[in-house]
Amino acid sequence: MSKENENMKDNSRRSFLKTAALTGAALCASPVLDKINAAQNVDGKSQSSRPNGKFSLPVITTYRTLGTGKFAMKVSTLGFGCMGLNYHRSQHPDKKAAINLVHEAIERGINLFDTAESYGPYTNETLVGEALKGYRDRVLVTTKFGHKFVNGKRVMTEEDSSPANIRKVCEESLRRLNIETIDLFYQHRADPHTPIEEVAATVKQLIQEGKVQRFGLCEVNTDTIRRAHAIQPITAIQSEYHLMFRRVEDEILGLCEELGIGFVPYSPLNRGFLSGALNEYTRFDATNDNRAALPRFTPEAMCANLRIVDVLYDFGRTRGITPAQVAQAWLINKKPWIVPITGTTKLSHLEENIRSTDIRFTTEEMNEIEARTAAIPIVGDRYNAAEQSKVQ
Ligand SMILES: NC(=O)c1ccc[n+]([C@@H]2O[C@H](COP(=O)([O-])OP(=O)(O)OC[C@H]3O[C@@H](n4cnc5c(N)ncnc54)[C@H](OP(=O)(O)O)[C@@H]3O)[C@@H](O)[C@H]2O)c1
């Protein structure tokens, strides 16, 4: 059989498995959830808050705490990454559909919404602001500063966390989001020209002024976390973490545990790949999708890396859960202070993702997922050279 034919056969098998897993999930939903109900969910709370104690639309029933003490933040076990609603994920819905989806997420109990100045740039914050209008008392909004822009265009070779720029971004983000205070303000990428102490002190002042409630950092090392935390306690670290990129397990998660800092894995499905929805035939819109420039998303890399997705299909099939659910539930089961912020543009995916919060794995199951995925060598770096120089 030719390579192409083999690939096509493999793809239709994957697509069959995905359909089978989804159907299985739907058919099995009641018994699986009842079983979990009978025990406890991952956060140890009973799920009797379901209407009449019966199965209904997927809703979040568990909440977690990011950070500790005065700067703690109680959030839904799954957050919503808003970036892909209009940026970086090729096709996106029109504004009305995107806003409707955010409203669905809120109605289903999600209270954590993540955006950034740089998504668009600017347009994602504006969309999120519009979508959250009227829901302010039910949601927590996180956004980010630190990239450098000149005339609305990002300067890829530099970052800007100067106090003046942090203040400027804060004012502009508040305006675009149409809110009085930012619930958590992350530094997006480290700025080699501004000491982290100065960054932390600036956010501390913004907190004292009431413009920001909490502080976070993305993609930083342990030294930076310790130095920043000593000036302004950090609520959450937001860095890449999923079954194809587990580097934060080396040191970062241990430090978060020690200091009482929450962890928010971004791209928890590795930008959709771990769901099984992408393969070597997927084409990205290079004008609006960073995956087009990521080494792990070349057709060759995706073709090779689908072996990992096959493991997730195989693991989930007999349990009635999809690869996306295995990937998200694995993160959620890892630590009670981890809160993934999956992005989606589709209600069906949102529902599938919400159900991940009800799935509880045993230690043996966690070990099996980790051992089987780690045994497969990953092809392609997670970032290209320019992006890689900015992350740990
Ligand atoms: N701090 C940082 O540097 C940083 C970097 C990147 C991202 N982020 C944050 O993390 C959030 C999520 O990251 P991400 O969008 O890169 O990656 P992701 O959440 O891993 O993946 C999103 C992609 O997965 C697809 N998807 C979601 N659920 C699915 C399901 N159940 N089945 C099939 N496909 C599914 C979505 O497509 P559909 O629309 O078709 O569902 C979307 O294209 C962003 O919105 C952003 O807030 C932060």
Q: The CATH topology is what?
A: TIM Barrel
Beta strand count: 12
**Overall pLDDT metric:** 89
Count of individual helical segments: 12
Structural class: alpha/beta
Globally, the shape reads globular
CATH class: Alpha Beta
CATH architecture: Alpha-Beta Barrel
The CATH superfamily is known as: NADP-dependent oxidoreductase domain
Explain this structure:
- The chain is an alpha/beta fold.
- It has one domain: NADP-dependent oxidoreductase domain (TIM Barrel), CATH 3.20.20.100.
- It is 41% helix and 14% strand.
- It is built from twelve helices and twelve strands.
- The strands form three sheets. It has an eight-stranded parallel sheet with strand order 11-10-9-8-5-4-3-12, with helices on one face. Strands 1-2 form a two-stranded antiparallel sheet. A two-stranded antiparallel sheet has the order 6-7.
- Strand 1 and strand 2 form a beta hairpin.
- Helix 8 crosses helix 9.
- The radius of gyration is 20 Å and the shape is globular.
- It starts with a helix and ends with a helix.
- The N terminus is likely disordered.
- It binds NADP nicotinamide-adenine-dinucleotide phosphate.
- The site of NADP nicotinamide-adenine-dinucleotide phosphate has 28 residues, from strand 12 and helix 10.
